[in-house]
Request: fold
Amino acid sequence: MESEKKILSFLKPDLVEKILQESTVQEFPKGTEILRAQQYVKVLPIVLDGLVKVYSKFEEKELLLYYIEPAQSCVMTFNAALKNSPSKVFATTETDSKIILIPVKLLPEWLQKYPDFNELFYTQYNLRYSELLETISHLLLDKMDKRLYDYLKKKSALTSTNSIKMSHSQIANELGTAREVITRVLKKLENEEKVVQNAGEIKIVGEW
Reply:
């Protein structure tokens, strides 16, 4: 309980107590789908530990939207919950994760009663908007080698490891491109001594 209070310490103590009383804390293994598109949202997640990937699918291709880190929630889930509309996104645990699940039926009352609860989601909206602008900038201005390098660098930072265990197909899905493109660009980065590949692992060994 104390660890949960520490993660939620950005909220006022009375709201933290209310969240812990009314919500459920669950642990999910890596790779667990916790939300799918067209599903009605019943609980609002706040990540306590771990990492959650939020993405969309277009013609069987995944497109990474953002990651939810500890002390963060999901603005897309929040929006769907308030409107009582089906989710437009999928969410899957990227690592083993501990998540607090808040019943969405409590949201209208808490948004009125606790100003810092509102502030949590205003902050999340601003964060995701900034990330969206950054993504658009990468798409418009950067070549694929720079996009891929920055993606690997961010993934490494988020997972606190210099070794990224992902297939070329998985990376291609998250970047919205083809596997063959990722394979070719990774080889280019390897020749430039920015990354090395070995037995399904990719390691960053040089700076851009």
